[in-house]
């Protein structure tokens, strides 16, 4: 394996608010437990936008954490992966803490440092540089807004070469998060009802996950008419426009015989979380998936939760182990039970800013950038 850096291009973020600038980048050779991946497609996730808009990260940095591609080189201690493998890149984790040891890497004790620190936590280095100057990288263990990315063996998932590789990247975060909330976090059972607040990638992936495991009535609350229509095409029992509902909670309860078994909030807006809490029946569970403002508070007292007998369950990355859950989702996709490709709109990598703006305007659900 050569120790020479690989020349590529990356979307570099230099200040809060953007824009992303396509610039040349040098990507160092992989270290012992790392792999070099030629990216063929990368999804744009709400977390990328949140970091652009001020979630604390070091700059300049290359974001992107829904990458898919082909392994070009491997480190000396990589055992499970080979050059030429088709892979999806997921979030990073330590692999050694109690949560990781119990097959729950989404609860890794060093999750923030591994995924948002912008450097390898072992020595503070980054594999990315320009003219000899370091550029922060390893965002979610990949920084895949680039033609080449360095990932670790632990967050690299092999996928069948027969599948459309350029579309698979969002399985590493947004789609995994939504589907995992329904399948893993809430463990939705056949016939159970679910109210989903927000019809973006995560919400619609939760709908697909709930449908894949045989949920009963599934409701989607979403202001965008286009996204409501898509939700119905994907199997929603009923959709609601929160702007036109006189009493949204009453409408959901009327449609679900007194309340749903579960609710999923993807908005992180306290008012909406309150509606989710009030929509479930006693004993119900509300999954909290969105990234809240720093001062956002739960709109309920402890007595409210006790009297209503509602459980609040924060969810990170769908409580999934990517090494087992991504193959499970792909198996459902191949069985035509999980048509996640219906959420995707393709863009050339050079149109990254246009793709992000389209998502912010709800014109598309999941932009995927192609190289």
Task: Please identify the top-level CATH class of the largest domain.
Answer: Alpha Beta
How much beta, percentage-wise?
25-35%
Number of strands: 18
Count of structural domains: 2
CATH A-level architecture of the largest domain: Alpha-Beta Complex
- State the fourth-level CATH superfamily of the largest domain: Medium-chain alcohol dehydrogenases, catalytic domain
Q: Averaging pLDDT over every residue, what do you get?
A: 96
Approximate shape? globular
Structural class: alpha/beta
Query: Poorly predicted ranges (pLDDT <50, ≥5 residues)?
Result: none
- Radius of gyration over C-alpha positions, nearest whole angstrom: 20 Å
Helix content: 25-40%
Distance between the termini: 24 Å
Give the helices and strands as they follow along the chain. EEEHEEEHHEEEEHEHEHEHEHEHEHEHE
Reported for the largest beta sheet, the result is: 7 strands, mixed
In CATH terms, what is the fold-level topology of the largest domain?
Answer: Quinone Oxidoreductase, Chain A, domain 1
- The number of helical elements comes to 11
